[in-house]
Amino acid sequence: MTSREFTITQEAIDRMTPKNERFGQVMTSLIHHLHDFIRDVQLTEEEWMTAIQFLTKTGQTCTDKRQEFILLSDTLGVSILVDAINNRLPEGATEQTVLGPYYWEGAPHKPMGANIAEGIVGEPCLYSGIVTSLDGSPVEGATLDIWSGDGEGNYDMQLGSDEMRARAVLTTGKDGKFWFWSIKPSFYPVPSDGPVGSMLDAMGRHPNRPGHMHFILRAPGHKTIVTHIFPSDSPYLDTDTVFGVKDGLIVDYIPHEPGTTPAGDTQTVPYYTCHYDFQLAPLSEVEKLKTA
Predict the structure, then answer these.
(1) Model confidence over 204-237: pLDDT tens digits?
(2) CA 163, CA 107: separation in Å to the nearest integer?
(3) Structure pTM?
(4) Looking at CB atoms within 10 Å, which of 30, 192, 200, 231 has the fewest?
(5) For residue 223, is it left (φ>0), alpha (ψ between -120 and 50) or beta?
């Protein structure tokens, strides 16, 4: 080994005169770890070029409706690690998980009880629950930003639609309760026609996610949470390709025959009900964790 193999790391760090202290800290650590990785695996020139081409193609695959870099982060466990570090919550609060690549900002606000998946493929499901603070008191004015794929696991973005489907924002009243109709979500593969799919294949990993319904909950005085709920009978709960499943987010979906539903309307086909209560952490409690 030549001395240059070891001196270049400090030389690259010494060249910096960062204008921001935190940026300097991050880049110093990145250079250290990146150089150590290259020395550890004895990276070849061909492998280096393959990595450059992979990252280039990852960027080229991104569109306004597809974020291949988020997918890369998700499938390497980076997204869930960043989430765990940055979203430490007090005991009892609903757990966070990954945002995923199919969030579409600006979903329509709909009234409580709306069918947000009208006209899409899937088994009907009535969702209900209550949004509370950690002390059990209902949270008025909490917004639930909700989205999912259809019953075959396809999101509107994947189908090339300019119209949002199976997406809505609901707002709780004084009792903190929510209810809406959608579908029971199906498992599905993440996009595997791009560089991330090729990477997963080379790693001997499947691209599948268990079925899940996405939520972002926001409420005055409380920490915003990004989370899912997962049907307890879905495949891939133990091997979610983006590492997003947490035990506290797995829920039983109860099957029902056609007839009058708990919401008081009538279903002419079999349907499911799913009840899940969200517990939000007051900002004051979250701040205590940061100083503990």
Answers:
(1) 999 999 999 999 999 999 999 999 999 999 999 9
(2) 10
(3) 0.89
(4) 30
(5) beta
